[in-house]
């Protein structure tokens, strides 16, 4: 029996009371939105419209992929969340905070709770793996302790545990420029986990990796999402990967959402609409 189904109600108040108690104990709490975009628009330099009236909401624990052609606004969406880019209009609510109105202190909190994984890893190449991973704690520290590289024993222990989970124990003391792309990306994941984030934003995390390293990265992020109930939002160029791993896909064309739904309802025609292409023009049409 599905453990989340409510028990059958009885005929006496006592039985019903017990049944209600069981429901309360066994039912999963309803997921809460962790991120909401409400009519968000972004115009760069008063000239380039990157987003127009983008609205969507992501619940805690979701694994969402954003797909769309180059220049459609995918990175702009992710950058608006941690204010690397300021939205021109609209509201962005993250974990109860209105991002656009956040003061410096609030913005620091938002960034602390938001891990970011980049296509080109954004590691400090001349530093060791463990040092890069510990950098994930910087948002939790006063500037001075961060600058002198002071980390607690607990933080170091935690960093090594995360490295072990990502299969990087042997690389811990290597310089990052000695690593393969797949290893570097795993360091990027480890660093963002050190932040203890509420949300991980992944901007083309596998765009520079071969198919095998890509699978390792996507599998790790999928396990992290499931085991830690950690919300992940991806920008992906690989439609097949988005279809395979995500429970929800957002399709964006010229800065507007044209699809928001499960992968199994994203048909060929819709994919062509998102990419503004005709049959035979996409790699997904091959085979
Ligand atoms: N800093 C910027 N200044 C001016 N225009 C920008 C800036 N960043 C992005 N744009 C423009 O905004 C639009 C959306 O860009 P964005 O980088 O969000 O697209 P994308 O979907 O992530 O593309 P890609 O798939 O190539 O990474 C594009 O027209 C781009 O040229
Ligand atoms: Mg981009």
Furnish the topology, listing elements before pairings:
Elements: H1 13-26, E1 33-44, E2 48-59, E3 63-67, H2 74-81, E4 89-94, E5 97-98, H3 104-112, E6 114-118, H4 129-134, H5 143-147, H6 153-165, H7 181-194, E7 199-203, H8 211-228, E8 231-235, H9 239-245, E9 248-253, E10 256-261, H10 268-275
Parallel strand pairs: 3-8, 3-9, 6-7, 7-8
Antiparallel strand pairs: 1-2, 1-4, 4-5, 9-10
Helix pairs in contact: 6-7, 7-8
The structure holds adenosine-5'-triphosphate (ATP) and magnesium ion.
Q: How would you portray this structure in words?
A:
The protein is α/β, with parallel strands linked by helices and 287 residues long. The chain folds into 2 domains: 30-113 and 198-287, Rossmann fold (3-Layer(aba) Sandwich), CATH 3.40.50.300; 120-196, no CATH class. The protein has helices at 13-26, 74-81, 104-112, 129-134, 143-147, 153-165, 181-194, 211-228, 239-245, 268-275, and strands spanning 33-44, 48-59, 63-67, 89-94, 97-98, 114-118, 199-203, 231-235, 248-253, 256-261. A 6-stranded mixed β-sheet has the order 6-7-8-3-9-10, sandwiched between helices. A 4-stranded antiparallel β-sheet has the order 2-1-4-5, covered by helices on one side. Helix 6 (153-165) crosses helix 7 (181-194) and helix 7 runs parallel beside helix 8. It is globular, with a radius of gyration of 21 Å. The two termini are 41 Å apart. The structure holds adenosine-5'-triphosphate and magnesium ion. Magnesium ion binds next to helix 2.
């Amino acid at each position: 029996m599905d453990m989340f189904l409510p028990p059958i109600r009885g005929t006496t108040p006592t039985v019903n009371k017990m049944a209600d108690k069981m429901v309360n104990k066994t039912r999963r709490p309803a997921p809460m939105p962790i991120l909401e975009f409400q009519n968000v628009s972004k115009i760069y330099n008063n000239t380039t419209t990157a987003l127009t009236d983008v609205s969507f909401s992501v619940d805690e624990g979701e694994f969402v992929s954003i797909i769309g052609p180059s220049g459609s606004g995918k990175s702009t969406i992710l950058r608006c969340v941690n204010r690397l880019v300021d939205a021109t209009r609209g509201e962005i609510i993250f974990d109860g905070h209105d991002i656009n109105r956040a003061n410096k202190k609030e913005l620091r909190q938002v960034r602390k709770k938001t891990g970011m994984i980049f296509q080109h890893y954004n590691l400090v190449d001349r530093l060791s793996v463990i040092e890069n991973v510990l950098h994930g704690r910087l948002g939790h520290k006063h500037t001075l302790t961060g600058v002198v590289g002071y980390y607690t024993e607990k933080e170091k222990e935690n960093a090594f545990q995360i490295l072990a989970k990502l299969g990087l124990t042997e690389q811990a003391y290597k310089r990052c420029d000695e690593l393969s792309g797949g290893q570097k990306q795993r360091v990027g994941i480890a660093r963002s986990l050190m932040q203890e984030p509420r949300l991980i934003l992944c901007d083309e995390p596998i765009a520079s990796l071969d198919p095998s390293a890509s699978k390792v990265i996507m599998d790790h992020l999928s396990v992290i999402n499931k085991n830690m109930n950690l919300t992940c939002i991806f920008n992906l160029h690989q439609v097949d990967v988005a279809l395979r791993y995500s429970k929800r896909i957002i399709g964006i064309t010229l800065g507007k959402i044209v699809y928001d739904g499960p992968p199994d309802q994203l048909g060929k025609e819709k994919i062509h609409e998102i990419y503004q292409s005709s049959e035979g023009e996409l790699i997904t049409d091959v085979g």
